[in-house]
Amino acid sequence: xxxxxxxxxxxxxxxxxxxxxxxxxxxxxxxxxxxxxxxxxxxxxxxxxxxxxxxxxxxxxxxxxxxxxxxxxxxxxxxxxxxxxxxxxxxxxxxxxxxxxxxxxxxxxxxxxxxxxxxxxxxxxxxxxxxxxxxxxxxxxxxxxxxxxxxxxxxxxxxxxxxxxxxxxxxxxxxxxxxxxxxxxxxxxxxxxxxxxxxxxxxxxxxx
Length: 208
Fold this sequence. Notes:
71% of the residues lie in helices and 0% in strands. It has 208 residues and is an all-alpha fold. Residues 25-44 bind DNA.
């Protein structure tokens, strides 16, 4: 099958999911495509460009999903609703790609236009809301960092919780009485994420 930039990016995403950011190599991508590594360079200049293209793909999908969510909002939607729509769709989009959160985290260094588009729209939302201009950049960066970190934690959670004996549980409860208390709320990941966004927006709206 003919090599194309799209096929190379798709293979890069597959290899990235298996070996991670730092271990990805053009040779591994070529092997996935049953091609010579040198032939990839006719389409992609090297690993850095491939990573930027991969980040762009993830971010463009997230941007399009965010556009749909924003369009679906009622005309009376608040700026907090608009921020929430963008953050929720971003989280769901990058969760679809193993390593997607890491690609987003690394995207500023790649000058990914897809990631820059996400940041630009978020900044516009905050500025249009009347938030102080000198706070908006920090607020937008904080939001994107929060989404990235949240998904990184989700993707790195073990599929099965560690086994804990009754004796060990008693020790942990004594050492961490608040954290291990049965009365401590245990919201779902979706609820935790939504509430965290609302707490952040409340902070953004409060004069520093």
